[in-house]
Amino acid sequence: MGALYCSGLEGIVDAIKSMSNIRPTQGDVAYRGYDIRTLVKRSTYEEVAFLLLHGRLPRIDEFERFFSVLADNRELPNDLLDIFRRIPPKAHPMDVLSIAVAFLGTVDPEVRDHSREAAFRKTIKTIAKLPSIIASSWRISQRLEPINPMRHLTHAQNLLYMLSGYEPDEDAVDALDRMLILYADYEADVSSFTARVAASSFTDYHSALLAAIGSLKGRLHGGASEQVMRMLRNINEVCKAEEWVKDALQKRQMIMGFGDRVCKQSDAQAQIMKNLSRDLAHKIGDTNLHLLCEKIEEIMFREKGLHHNLNFYAGPILTMLSIPTDLCTPIFAAGRIAGWSAHIVEQFENNKLVRPRFAYQGPEDLIYQPFEERDYKTRMSTV
Fold first, then answer.
1. Does the pLDDT of residue 381 top 80, yes or no?
2. Is the alpha carbon torsion for 143, 156, 223, 286 positive or negative?
3. Count of CB atoms within 10 A of residue 180's CB?
4. Does residue 275 contact residue 317 with C-beta atoms inside 8 Å?
């Protein structure tokens, strides 16, 4: 029986226990069986990270211990800060993030240990350090001194504090914490699948993580939110949206932040992100960016029948939180690190090498010719 061909592996299901579940027709998304709407409303990023890693919600004592261990591991080695100072300021923050994770792999004393216990230790250390990496490397690139994390602050609070130097207000923390929860996992998206493929070779944890980070950077994945912000700045005004979008569509340009391979309707994560944008815009008293997004959303559905996805309103939210556009994708990574880590650990524990087939398309049975007889102006003869 020949191999099944499907472009982009669309619709192909691997028999693995996913961290999250998507019901495409309803647009429902759940982490380990818990509806995403409930988690965003009632939970915290730290609790969701525990849920993804352990498959269940923590008891109070387990949560306090988990929070404490994260707090113990947020500070960065001085050697890593020195590396940040030697990186060109114009380097993309996602490339800097890759360098930092690679460095953590080189100093990991358990790099060859694939046991469950060692994997969890690496996971917690990396989840804890990612906000510190993002904030410290960004401040150094702006010729500012990095700010040490504070033990009593949450994941979201520390990220905002280390970027600005000011303890953030409650609304800002709430918005970012919810974003990180929304980012935490999305079934077999490109970066999570990449992490599992890499982990299936029994490479080390940090190398599998690097593979995921590289795929997240792409503009068709996490990098889309950066592209959305650049589009919004080009359009600038709601009254110009119609002409700009129609012109772009006529030129067959891709409008970022729309469409999803799995959910053809807008899913729960995307809708919650839109609601976060609307609520935050009203709280800060500036709705221009959100209204521009709504106008583009209206045009895209009318012209192409496409719904917005998770990335569309993410950039505007981070902009309203005074976070630079270049950090949109790294902050996506700061949320998705929990899901990636859970996928990697699970792959290590129940591993089978991920080895699909490619459908070859090209000439066959060609006759090898010596250099002096080769003429590429004409097609080689075949048997």
1. no
2. negative
3. 26
4. no
With 70 as the cut, is the pLDDT of residue 274 above it?
yes
CATH code matching the domain that covers 224-320, chosen among 1.10.730.10, 3.40.50.720, 1.10.10.10, 1.10.230.10 = 1.10.230.10
The total of other beta-carbon atoms located within 10 Å of residue 60's CB is 7
Distance CA 341, CA 347 (A): 10
Contacts of 248 (CB under 8 A, 6+ apart): 255
Closest CA to 277 of 267, 291, 297, 257: 291
State pLDDT tens for residues 220-251: 888 889 999 999 999 999 999 999 999 999 99
Candidate CATH numbers 1.10.580.10, 3.40.50.2300, 1.20.970.10, 1.10.10.10; the one for domain 7-219+325-349: 1.10.580.10
CA atoms within 13 A on the CB side of 283: 15
Beta bridge partners of 34: 31
Half-sphere exposure of 84 (CA within 13 A, CB side): 26
Q: What percent of the chain has pLDDT over 70?
A: 91
pLDDT value, residue 6: 46
The tokens describing 362, both together, are 């090209």
Which segments of the chain are extended strands (E)? 20-23, 28-31, 34-35
DSSP E strand boundaries for 20-116: 20-23, 28-31, 34-35
Q: Distance (Å, rounded) from C-alpha 157 to C-alpha 150?
A: 9
Angle at 42 between CA 36 and CA 287, to 5 degrees: 75
Structural domain boundaries of the chain? 7-219+325-349, 224-320
Tell me: the pLDDT tens digits for 307-330?
Answer: 999 999 999 999 999 999 999 999
354 burial (CB, 10 Å; 0-12 / 13-18 / 19+) is: middle
Q: Are 66 and 58 in contact (CB under 8 A)?
A: yes
**For 244, how many CA atoms within 13 A lie in the half-sphere containing its CB?**
18
Q: Cα–Cα distances in Å, from 146 out to 122, 143, 329, 330?
A: 23, 9, 20, 17
Q: Record the tokens describing residue 241, joined without a space.
A: 């949206």
